[in-house]
Amino acid sequence: MITLPVENPWPGAPVYFKKKTGSTMEDARRLFLTGCPDGTVVLTGFQERGRGRMADRSWSAEEGKNLLFTVVLRAPGGVGGPGGAPQRLPLVAGLALAVTVERLYSLPVQLKWPNDLLVEGKKLAGILCEALAEGESFGVLIGFGVNCNQISFPEDLEQKAISLSRILDREVDPRVILKELLKVLRATLDDSGWKSKVEQRLFGLGREVFLHTPQAAGSLRDQRGVIRGLNSDGSLLFQPAGTLEVISLYTGEIR
Predict the structure, then answer these.
(1) Which residues contact 156 (CB under 8 A, 6 or more apart)?
(2) Do 121 and 28 share a structural domain?
(3) Is the pLDDT of residue 15 over 50?
(4) What's the CA gap between 181 and 99, in Å, rounded?
(5) CA atoms of 112 and 110, how far apart (whole Å)
(6) CATH number for position 64
(7) Cβ contacts of 102 within 8 Å, gap of 6 or more
């Protein structure tokens, strides 16, 4: 692991780089447990065990082609407590990434609740947040996976994923994105207007969608309904078809 000369808006926080690793989330967790500074970053060129939000999901990325990193955030007193990161945190992080892509490349970005970025209706990036607890110290890991220069994808993802290089027809510099994203992320974490900014970009807002939701005993079901917006805690406001009731959902996947 080497330290990169990348400007980090968290004073004194290093940006580490590993050419190959199992998972930057695992690396970041170990750094948290050893007392790393708030804002510490672990960046890699390839993850052998990259994973998504769902337990059965992995993150597929070609070696050296994409932006894969995790940020360690320390929060004395608890960030959502030891039970989990706030529901809003993936959305706040997603907003920071959306603003970064918009600024650097003038691309229209949508945020798909709860943790994906879409461009041209396809997945450009995913975000994974996990809460940490060690004694009286609490923190959160924010993992980013951004498709930068990958041209081809596995067959099951070819129609679902996209990269910046495919959109722009040129390569991009992941470290330029990293530098801007860290700056925007630091500001967005303190932005009280994050909810309206996310809703401006919210995929499916006001439209009828199918929402894949987990049920008891591990079963799943699709609910048809209309997305009405977000609560201040990041949960989804959803109106099931055939009803006037708007409910709050904390987990699920929009289809």
Answers:
(1) none
(2) yes
(3) yes
(4) 8
(5) 6
(6) 3.30.930.10
(7) 108, 109
